[in-house]
Amino acid sequence: VQLFNFLANLSFEESRPWLDSGRLFVLPPAIAPWSEPRAAVGAKKTLRILGIASGKFWPKGIPDAIAACELAIKDGVDLQLTLVGGGIPKGKWHEYIMSRGWIRNLGRIERSSLEAEFAQTDVLIFPSHH
């Protein structure tokens, strides 16, 4: 949870009353609010997931997120995973991603395109092992 310049880790029980009250918001750092209206969650039948796969984020959990999405699809969840960033290793991972119709790999994109992707996303995957 990042609030202005204060970084805090709250457990579920500590944060639950704040989240329920509407007084606590989880915001991505350094992302300015966008002026475009956001699409409502569930506005489309397909669950739209955005994964940040650049630099350090690939080894910090994107492969785990892809595996989780694959399991969800096998359980009948209709989803689309969009990956942005240039961190996908060449070779088997690249081939795997390209062979899955439910994964969109956009690579590196301009900031304006990223904000448009945010506006059309139901779930953001921003992995970390900490």
Distance between the termini: 13 Å
Taking pLDDT < 50 over at least 5 consecutive residues as the criterion, the unreliable ranges are: 1-7, 28-34
- Envelope shape: globular
Please work out how many helical segments DSSP would assign: 4
Mean pLDDT: 76
The portion of residues assigned to helices is 25-40%
Strand fraction equals 15-25%
As laid out across the biggest beta sheet, the strand order is 5-4-3-6
SS content category: alpha/beta
Order of helices and strands: EEHEHEHEHE
Count of extended strands: 6
Computed Rg: 16 Å
Biggest sheet: strands, sense, closure?
4 strands, parallel
Describe this structure in words.
By secondary structure, the protein is α/β, with parallel strands linked by helices. It has 4 helices and 6 strands; from the N terminus they run E-E-H-E-H-E-H-E-H-E. The strands form 2 sheets. It has a 4-stranded parallel sheet, with helices on both faces. A two-stranded antiparallel sheet has the order 1-2. The chain is globular.
Summarize the entry for a quick read:
By secondary structure, the chain is of the alpha/beta class. The protein has helices at residues 12-21, 62-74, 92-98, 111-119, and strands at residues 2-3, 6-7, 47-52, 79-84, 103-107, 123-125. Helices cover 30% and strands 18% of the residues.
Keywords summarizing the entry:
about 130 residues, alpha/beta, 4-stranded parallel β-sheet, two-stranded antiparallel ribbon, globular, disordered N terminus
